[in-house]
Design goal:
Helix content is about 45%, strand content about 20%. The chain is an alpha+beta fold and about 200 residues long.
Length: about 200
């Protein structure tokens, strides 16, 4: 039988994310004003809407992965943060590459964060390029994918020393067999490429 102290301990352990998820801002509808102090992910997870007042939360902008993942949503719930933390724990990694893979699964493949498994995140055949210019990223991605998928043609192209023989990166990447997602996070940009 679970006692009240056991339930409280269980809730505290559950509310302590394994990874830093940044800070959050919020609005308390009962008070009719913004919540003054910055909130941690644990604060959002354990927020008691009955006792403290119905509230809405959103990332404060100091964690590029969390900001990216929840950018298209009006608010973030404690359940969302628990789901994200569960997934990050299972993956054992909270790098920006992991957030980009989760972003793709949720926003481009219509996956539900609460139902997403590590296997679904890991098994996505994605090529991710990070930089500061989409133009440069597209050039880099096109050449890398060309050399990877068509090594013989790439070698032949490299050996051609004739003027006027160019590789059209945009035409290569605009292939109907590729899905390309351009993502901005903070000062950086990412090009996520998946096969159709």
């Amino acid at each position: 039988m679970e006692t009240q102290s056991t339930q409280m301990f269980s809730r505290q352990v559950e509310s302590a994310p394994a990874f830093d998820l940044g800070s959050f801002e919020g609005f308390n509808f009962r008070e009719g004003c913004s919540i003054e102090e910055p909130l941690t992910a644990a604060d959002v997870i354990v927020w008691d809407h009955d006792r403290a007042g119905q509230a809405e939360f959103w990332p404060s902008g100091n964690h590029e992965g969390v900001d990216l993942l929840f950018a298209n949503r009006g608010s973030v719930t404690g359940t969302d943060l628990l789901s994200l933390d569960r997934l990050l724990r299972a993956l054992g990694d909270d790098s920006i590459m992991t957030y980009l893979r989760i972003y793709y699964a949720v926003n481009c493949r219509d996956g539900a964060l609460a139902e997403l498994t590590p296997l679904e995140v890991d098994e996505q055949p994605l090529h991710i390029f990070i930089g500061t210019s989409f133009t440069e990223l597209r050039k880099e991605a096109a050449l890398e994918l060309f050399s990877m998928y068509y090594p013989d043609e790439f070698a032949a192209w490299e050996d051609i020393h004739c003027e006027g023989v160019v590789f059209d990166e945009d035409r290569f990447l605009d292939s109907p067999c590729l899905h390309i997602e351009e993502v901005e996070f903070g000062e950086r940009k990412a090009l996520i490429i998946a096969g159709q």
